[in-house]
Design brief:
With about 400 residues, this protein is an all-alpha fold. Helices cover about 80% and strands about 0% of the residues. It has 17 helices and no strands. The chain has helices at about 1-20, 25-60, 65-95, 100-110, 120-125, 130-135, 140-155, 160-185, 185-200, 205-235, 240-260, 260-275, 280-295, 295-310, 320-335, 340-355, 360-395. Helix 14 (about 295-310) runs antiparallel to helix 17.
Length: about 400
């Protein structure tokens, strides 16, 4: 709660500084905002790659039995459903573009924006060497490489060489998490800069309309997934949604306030075992895996935010484009293994990889803390549903 209050305070201070219209303050805020954008970009690309590699290397071959099969199946189905709901709401609500000044400055801040045809973009995703995607920050190519490396490691027989490689990736991931935590500790300064830049440069009415519809899509998608889609999954397996939700409510509420599925995991397992009556072997196998790969809220956020940023960058959102990004958002969300502010960093990585105006994400950052709370609660609720359905399927009494 202290962090939330601090972020809200930073947002208010930044807004006031921007409204003052003092030139040297505006220039200072623009400098700080640009620095933060570059730092996010620096850390986000290797973070998403390592997250995907370590996730698939750790779980790709784990549990060849029925428990893992059902866990993975339900995870994929619910995550695809969450992304699809987000896409449908985005088309129906149709958030408008931000003011031209904002988009032009965002594009100007990223001089690496390529001018590619759609066919060129598809071809550019397929890498022809390992170094080039790293140098160009082509995250889609890196995702393909990470996926292949992660699955490859999971299929290798256990040996000292495999152990060394996996531990090396995990060690690098821990180092990046440490750097990200340091950056997050200074984030209130970044929020002051972003909000000051926003209030000083653009029309508040237009931004409120555009951002308001964007937030409506994000939160509306989460609400529909939480109260409609996931309960329908439970009903389809013969379970009572209200019973499951009431039993798992302590874990869902903790997730809402901690904004961390991992921090909530001990309570989630205890609640599933003691209140919902899930078998211990199932709860202790399914829930840790779900905490790592079952990210309904993250998939929806990546999809909707990517569409919003690309639209503001001039991309025409055709049906094939939306379907492609549903797939990308699902794969990226599954790779979001314990990344602090993971959805935000993953989206920033993907947008950076295709040359979209990533500075627009600075407009979203001040309200991300609220979105993150709702998404984490939805993620834990989805984990609970997957666990309950798996337990139901494998319970001999049913």
């Amino acid at each position: 709660m202290k962090k939330i209050a601090l972020w809200i305070g930073a947002l208010i201070i930044g807004t006031i500084l921007g409204i003052l219209g003092i030139n040297w303050i505006n220039q200072s805020m623009e400098l700080i905002a640009t620095i933060y954008t570059k730092l996010f970009q620096l850390l986000s690309v290797p973070t998403i790659v390592l997250a995907v590699v370590t996730t698939f290397a750790t779980f790709g071959s784990k549990g060849s039995g029925r428990i893992f099969t059902r866990t993975l199946t339900y995870t994929l189905l619910t995550t695809i459903a969450a992304a699809s709901v987000g896409a449908l709401l985005y088309v129906l609500i149709a958030p408008g573009n931000l003011p031209v000044d904002t988009v032009e400055q965002a594009v100007a801040a990223d001089s690496s924006t390529p001018s590619l045809t759609y066919q060129d973009h598809i071809l550019s995703v397929v890498p022809n060497n390992i170094v080039r995607p790293l140098l160009e920050g082509n995250v889609l190519s890196l995702l393909l490489i990470a996926f292949a490396v992660g699955i490859g490691l999971s299929k290798m027989p256990e040996s000292e060489n495999k152990s060394v490689v996996v531990k090396g990736f995990l060690g690098l991931q821990d180092l990046l998490f440490l750097l990200i935590r340091w950056l997050i500790q200074t984030l209130p300064l970044g929020i002051v800069a972003y909000s000051a830049q926003l209030s000083a440069q653009v029309s508040a009415g237009i931004v409120a309309d555009s951002i308001g519809k964007y937030v409506l899509v994000i939160l509306g998608g989460n609400v529909i997934q939480f109260f409609v889609v996931l309960p329908l999954f439970l009903l389809a397996r013969g379970l009572r949604p209200l019973h499951v939700m009431s039993r798992m409510m302590p874990a869902i509420l903790m997730a809402l306030f901690t904004k961390s599925s991992a921090a909530t995991l001990p309570l989630t397992m205890d609640t599933a075992e003691r209140r919902l009556g899930v078998r211990k072997d199932i709860a202790r196998f399914v829930l840790p895996i779900c905490t790592t790969i079952n990210m309904n809220g993250c998939a929806a956020f990546i999809l909707v935010t990517s569409l919003f940023v690309m639209q503001n960058g001039g991309t025409v959102l055709t049906l094939p484009t939306i379907l492609l990004w549903i797939f990308i958002s699902v794969v990226s969300a599954i790779g979001n293994a314990g990344v602090p502010m993971g959805c935000y960093f993953l989206t920033l990585s993907l947008m950076s990889g295709i040359g979209a105006p990533i500075a627009i994400l600075g407009v979203i950052l001040p309200i991300y803390t609220i979105i993150d709370m709702v998404e984490t609660a939805e993620n834990v609720w989805s984990d609970s549903c997957v666990c309950a359905m798996t337990n139901h399927d494998l319970n001999p009494n049913h």
